[in-house]
Amino acid sequence: MRLRLFRAPSMAEAMRQLRDALGPDAVILSTARRGREIEITAATASGEAPAVPLGAPPPALVPAPPAPAQRPQPPADPLARALARAGLPPSMIARLLAAAPPAGLAVPGRPADPSRRLALALAAAGPALAALPAAEEAPAMMLVGPAGAGKTLSTAKLAARAVIAGHRPLVVTADGARAGAAEQLAALRRVLGLDLVIAAEPSMLLRALAHRPPGAPLLLDTPALNPFSAADGEHLAALAAAAAAEPVLVLPAGIDAAEASDIAQSVLHLGARKLIATRLDAARRLGGVLAAAEAGLALAAAGVGEQVAEGLAAVDHAALADALLHPLPDRAPAPPPGPPPNPPALAEPLAPSAFVPPSRLPPPQRAPLPASRSLPA
């Protein structure tokens, strides 16, 4: 290879010298400014390499092509892989891994298996946990949340819990816009013998409360919340003020973490400080639930099952760790076209939920039940 240096007052002049001397096949190795001159180092494939002038810097080498992009490798720690699969935000994963005991380190009474490690990490650096107050401790509770979160079913389960504890709550639905909301709660009349009041506006709610028996707990079901609608927020704030109720956010498991955080932020100004997570027996992507709790809400209960009698389960760090670490089984392959075959069994059965529901209700009452009533606007 033949190397040449060319210097000129301008780049155009240096390039002219290069083409005249080496021709169009020359390869430019480097360019630099030397005082008021431009210096070009170039090469051709023929001839002897001339001596480089004394004092001149060595020519720059052609940079090597960039290495092919490497696919990101999964985290080495099995706990990190499980948390990423569960959809937790990266900042929460890093915090929990920092708080978890090292893998293989023994803890008092049992080895530090992944569930035990995660339970200890959740207790040290995870979202806060809280218990829903008993009926006599929370005379008014208002459930808020997005459409389809399970507010109405959770209201029914709270009513069942109050009846089991010996109380007769007043159940009110403010969801007059959704067809079927009142019908779903009407099951309370058939099963629990409770009155159902429909009060879609704060003024109607105030008139309903005027007939509330002394000491009766109030359970208020609300319409779907759009976290980006100021009107929705104002309406819920007016309902909470009229009922003097504690707002409680209801969110389904499997919701996107960023969306869940936005929803949680939108209810903090209402005074919400607790969170009921629903469908924890049917999802393992719990990153959204934990992201909402991290926004400032305490995880208070887990909705398990679709039956009112199954109630709401308490949440502890061990049960939460088990739910985060236990993956769903792989889906069975799609059957070929033709008559539907017998459904194949899954290679790995779905483990039961870590959240155990409380005792079931007594048999339904058979006495005549009062009809629901709707207050005039």
What does this structure look like?
The protein is built from 12 helices and 12 strands. With 377 residues, the protein is of the alpha/beta class. The protein has 3 domains: 1-62, no CATH class; 78-125, no CATH class; 140-329 and 351-361, P-loop containing nucleotide triphosphate hydrolases (Rossmann fold), CATH 3.40.50.300. The strands form 2 sheets. It has a 9-stranded mixed beta sheet with strand order 11-10-9-8-4-7-5-6-12, sandwiched between helices. Helix 10 (257-268) links the parallel strand 8 and strand 9 (274-278). Helix 3 packs across helix 4 (114-125). The model is unreliable at 48-55, 328-333, 343-352 and 357-372 (pLDDT under 50).
By CATH, the superfamily of the largest domain comes out as: P-loop containing nucleotide triphosphate hydrolases
Structural category: alpha/beta
For the sheet with most strands, the description reads: 9 strands, mixed
CATH class placement of the largest domain? Alpha Beta
Distance between the termini: 94 Å
Percentage of residues in helical conformation: 25-40%
Give the overall silhouette.
elongated
Mean pLDDT: 78
Low-confidence stretches: 48-55, 328-333, 343-352, 357-372
Describe the strand arrangement of the main beta sheet, using strand numbers: 11-10-9-8-4-7-5-6-12
DSSP strand content: 15-25%
Helix count, DSSP H or I runs of 4 or more residues = 12
Number of strands: 12
The CATH topology label of the largest domain is Rossmann fold
SSE order in H/E notation? EHEEHHHEHEHHEHEHEHEHEEHE
Number of domains: 3
Computed over alpha carbons, the radius of gyration is 34 Å
